[in-house]
Amino acid sequence: MLVSAFDYKQWSDRRTLAAMARIDRAAFPEAAAFTAQQLNHMVIVEELFRARLAGTPAPHRATNTDTVPDLQELAQRLAASSEWFSCQARDLTPAQRQQRLSFTFADGRQGCMSRQEILFHIINHGTYHRGAIGHALDLARVAHPADTYTVFIHEAEPARRG
Question: Name one Pfam family in it (predicted).
């Protein structure tokens, strides 16, 4: 299920990015800035959890930045992150998925989660922020994509509609 969930995440992220690119930045600067900030936060959180899973130092001190990279950079980082997490979901053994990792959150508080819980968190976290982006897209008069799991599985497997 985790493998399928990360396939869904990649699909949904691509649809969200395509919609974000359609925002009229001159007419709706606040919506454009908000969607970029949300995406920036998503990417940073994913990069922090990637480091925790890999046992490497945290690449960021906070879960957002004062300066938000452009959409192209964020899209590239998000795609790389999603691919990395997809590989983790596919390659971890059942025993590795249950392994608990202790770490420090960006706010300095301690945390402990299994690798599987971290993978689930990444799926859930992205869904939450894509929903916030969807609201900003509505305000900017850009149709937000239907990005639910049900749409994904029926698009991926059209025979299910039969």
Answer: DinB
